[in-house]
Design a protein that fits this description.
Chains A, B: One of its GO terms (molecular function) is transferase activity. Two copies of one chain form a homodimer. Chain A is 37% helix and 15% strand. The first copy, chain A, has 16 helices and 14 strands. In chain A, strands 5-2-1-6-7-8 form a six-stranded parallel β-sheet, with helices on both faces. A three-stranded antiparallel β-sheet of chain A has the order 9-10-11. Chain A has a two-stranded antiparallel sheet with strand order 3-4. Chain A starts with 8 loop residues before the first strand and ends in an 11-residue tail after the last helix.
Chain lengths: 391, 391
């Protein structure tokens, strides 16, 4: 069974994170992704640390399995190549500042007139409409404006950035959804579509409880450290050797937790009888629980709590997460094949496990800048099969 | 032009967050989503605060535009209805504990044999394979195990939960990608597919820089408060009336920032001449910048910095974010229509703006539990059009 996007050609004009992250997912689904880069320097993230033998581990982990050609989209000869690519492409993806494509003569109005089946995806900081369309943004700007920093951090403390770059990543994920929906629709309509995803919009869309609380009560929530704002106990706790979480989502789980801790009477204490009461007495309950948990290591508590059916888990560093047996069993940590003379890197696996999509044992390497120029020109001339072997 | 998923029927057996979030996005793309709920209580989140007139704002914001029928999947009469629905469905989505569907006789092996075109999506804490398949998980458990809490929080401080429920949300988003890829592929193969998304896997997949740093250097990053780990200055700063961010992604932006602050000589100081030098002197640089910014309000600095081409923005509460002119101009805050006798709520708009997908001025309401039983039975009997008006 071929992969779901077998035969689909993606022209990837994107750089840094939101766009490349989206294009990589399309490659994971089986599309041929041709990364069109600026001559000389290419994608900015080729210069992002950390490096191995002069190559960026960051770029490698985000761009595996793509082809690269460097094109100057202001030079006539390169524009001619680009337009031959457009005629073969199903999807064009870019994350320039709004207006940049129009400046090159490749705005949506021109593209859709010349290539009516082309699907055009644009990821930007604030979108292609609205009073601030055209302004630049970085991940942190939309984390700040979108509200997530205001609910992340210690209770009463200053705002904290989400450690993962969710300002970029979730925008890239929404773009993939739009592109796939447009591919499906094109088989029925015969027409492409433009998809316009704003990083700021995407931040609003993922904040379910903060939006519900703010709009229903008029009072926005603040940060609550490592605990859930409306469920108790649902937070980190200290064991003798580090942090772990207990997630007691209802009264039955709380009762089992008290038994597991050797304090069954806590479940009958009126201060802790309901979730509402536990939320009111959250700090004293935390001290009572930690008076038990601090005495023994995490492994003890996790085994004990799991035996009692209480959701729990270690707070892991990324090194621990990448060595987690369940993560490894799911094929989520993959070596990137190292061609002769190039360094070995590691990438995340594809979190979408589906029928027809084989689980690889390694990733194809990220391309060198302009490293596939000859291959791409051959392919355009019909001297290569449509879907190449992994580069 | 019809919406991209016009005519697609989704049976939504999901509850709480990851699954309902995914099903709602399919409704946003134009699918008919029939929520199949447990009789009596329905989706747990119908009981999640905050409430208005006895209805949950949380449930409303996550389930707008769906139909609801309550079915006891162990009772023969209800199973018969469910199987008639399966025969009409394109997609079945569930987020039970792995094995639950097999226990009901609706595991993938049975479903695909009887309904070969059915696409079956399962979201779970740890996935349907691996040593911990079958264990329950909540958002916070996978935030902890997946590593994101270890890189979120104050420098040197304890791990902090990401304020938005990204453990659930990004898993739901990956599920939507898988379902859409399978819909596209089905038009070519004639066959459905099973999609298995694990919340823990999804956490690994979104942590690009943490994975790259950990695997390339052997040392996992820790939390860095409100600043980017490898770019400086790229963090929050205090103005006289609150926090804002400055994101100086390269030397040119840093030089413009220094000019905007009235301290052009900082750009020539060897301690701050390169990003690497600025990272080394990050704390002194922050004090020097705040010695200027603390003297005036955020509005002054944002206007000044934007005039100099420096990416910046306020750290906003959710109330401020939902009133942000750019957010409103993008139609990202939508009233939910209130039928007679029911309360009014608010939901996020659809962040995927695309050709063929009209931007609504309001959301259809979330269904009452079993509120569409008669409509669903009529529809099965062919007494309703395939695609109803908004409920």
């Amino acid at each position: 069974m071929p992969p779901p996007l077998d035969g689909i050609v993606v022209l990837d004009l994107t750089h840094v994170l939101a766009g490349p992250f989206a294009a990589t997912q399309l490659a994971d689904f089986g599309a041929l992704v041709i990364k069109v880069e600026r001559p000389g320097t290419g994608d900015d993230t080729r210069a992002f640390p950390p490096f191995k033998d002069g190559e960026s581990a960051y770029f490698a982990a985000l761009n595996h399995g793509k082809r690269s050609i460097a094109l100057d989209l202001k030079a006539p000869a390169d524009r001619a190549i680009f337009e031959r690519l457009l005629a073969r492409a199903d999807i064009l993806l870019e994350n320039f500042r709004p207006g940049a494509m129009e400046g090159l003569g490749y705005g949506w109005a021109d593209l859709s007139a010349r290539f009516p089946r082309l699907i055009y995806g644009a990821v930007s900081g604030f979108g292609h409409t609205g009073p601030e369309a055209g302004k630049p943004a970085y991940d942190m700007v939309v984390q700040a404006r979108g509200g997530v920093m205001s609910i992340t951090g210690e209770e009463g403390g200053p705002p904290v950035r989400v450690g993962a770059s969710i300002g970029d990543v979730v925008a890239g994920m929404y773009m993939v959804q739009g592109l796939l929906a447009a591919l499906y629709a094109r088989d029925h309509s015969g027409r492409g579509a433009k998809i316009d995803v704003s990083m700021l919009d995407a931040q609003i869309a993922i904040q379910e409880h903060s939006l519900a609380i703010t709009t229903a009560t008029g009072t926005p929530p603040g940060p609550t450290g490592a605990r859930h704002p409306t469920i108790t106990p649902f937070s980190t706790f200290r064991a003798s050797d580090g942090f772990f979480v207990i997630a007691a989502g209802n009264d039955a789980i709380f009762a089992r937790l008290c038994t597991a801790l050797g304090q069954p009477e806590l479940a009958r204490d009126p201060r802790f009888a309901t979730n509402a009461a536990r939320c009111e007495h959250v700090h004293i309950l935390k001290r009572l629980i930690e008076s038990e948990t601090l005495a023994r290591p995490r492994a003890h508590w996790i085994a004990t709590l799991e035996a009692h059916g209480v959701p729990t888990g270690r707070v892991q560093t990324m090194a621990e997460a990448l060595a987690d047996p369940q993560v490894l069993a799911r094929n989520m940590v993959l070596p990137i094949a190292a061609p002769p003379g190039r360094p070995a890197f590691v990438a995340a696996g594809n979190p979408v496990k589906m029928t027809g999509l084989d689980e690889p044992s390694e990733r194809a390497p990220a391309p060198l800048l302009d490293g596939d120029r000859a291959w791409v020109l051959d392919w355009l001339a019909g001297r290569e099969s449509h879907q190449p072997d992994a580069p």
